[in-house]
Amino acid sequence: MDNDEHEHVIEATGLRRVYGGGFEAVRGISFSVARGEIFALLGTNGAGKTSTVELLEGLAAPAAGTVRVLGHDPCRERAAVRPRTGVMLQEGGFPSELTVTETARMWAGCTSSARPEAEALELVGLADKLRVRVKQLSGGERRRLDLALALLGEPEVLFLDEPTTGLDAEGRRDTWELVRNLRDSGTTVLLTTHYLEEAEGLADRLAILHKGRIATAGTPAEVTAGRPSRLSFRLPDGYFLGDLPPLTGLGVCEHEADGQVVRLRTRELQRTATAVLTWAAAAGIELSGLDMRSASLEEAFLGIAQEQDAAA
Ligand SMILES: Nc1ncnc2c1ncn2[C@@H]1O[C@H](COP(=O)(O)OP(=O)(O)OP(=O)(O)O)[C@@H](O)[C@H]1O
């Protein structure tokens, strides 16, 4: 079969990973990633992200379950998969005495059909650091070098393990733009990250891992749907929380007042906001600092971790 016709370029089914001593770090994970999609794996420390990505990269074989990347088993059919994938590990571990160019050249020598080193280094914004030794690079610049090396082979599938850790805000934005451009030109990207705004802004779909299992998965909008939204405002002097219309029946699940500032969490933002604004208009008062926002991925993430721990 022509691998280019695979709709899902990454398919994980029932993956398990057990370390020496019997610790099960990955406990039956299934998901797939379509060609040209950015998929993010999120999770608390030790949730099993790196353990899963290593299985996808073919660096280890699963204790159970199957992995297919571009239609092949990345561990047993490494020769078929490796030239078409780019891997950015958490720690590059390159000889620190080499310069940036020498490192890229050395890596290009191990890469089939590599793009010119200068082009890859330019893509990640290291064009002005070509003669600098790796040991002299800042932490963020090393991450960029790691990314440049992963891009050398013009990969169809790119694995990025915490690609923006250590980057400043500008470096992070540049990396996001680069990853989006790669996706738009057809590259499939699987990334792990601790930055929830990164996953929210970048990922087409994501999975949140918790203790080796997928707690939830979907588009960022799907994952945050159903989580309470926030509504806050300041009441004028002389008005109090108890003056508001009855909050029961409006989907409000939490309310608090800090002086004149009222904060509500509601599962029905439109109904709650309409009731509050109608009440304010009827009373002829202005609600200063009015702020409404849907649940963020961060709130969903924290809520899921708490729920899973409570259920356990
Ligand atoms: N070689 C190993 N031997 C035994 N246990 C391991 C080994 N490598 C990882 N683990 C354990 O497996 C679990 C999952 O680790 P993993 O590195 O996959 O998590 P992670 O989600 O990537 O975490 P982080 O966000 O901290 O990078 C952790 O409890 C970790 O201690």
TrEMBL record:
Q: Which InterPro entries match?
A: AAA+_ATPase (IPR003593), ABC_transporter-like_ATP-bd (IPR003439), ABC_transporter-like_CS (IPR017871), ABC_transporter_ATP-binding (IPR050763), P-loop_NTPase (IPR027417)
Transmembrane residue ranges: none
Entries under SUPFAM superfamilies matching the protein: P-loop containing nucleoside triphosphate hydrolases
Q: Which GO terms describe its biological process?
A: response to antibiotic
The subcellular location is: Cell membrane
The record's GO molecular-function terms, alphabetically, read:
ATP binding; ATP hydrolysis activity
Q: Topology relative to the membrane, per the entry?
A: Peripheral membrane protein
Q: Which UniProt keywords apply?
A: Antibiotic resistance, ATP-binding, Nucleotide-binding, Transport
Task: Provide GO CC annotations from the record.
Answer: plasma membrane
Q: ABC transporter domain: which residues?
A: 10-236
Can you name this protein? ABC transporter ATP-binding protein
Classification lineage: Bacteria, Bacillati, Actinomycetota, Actinomycetes, Kitasatosporales
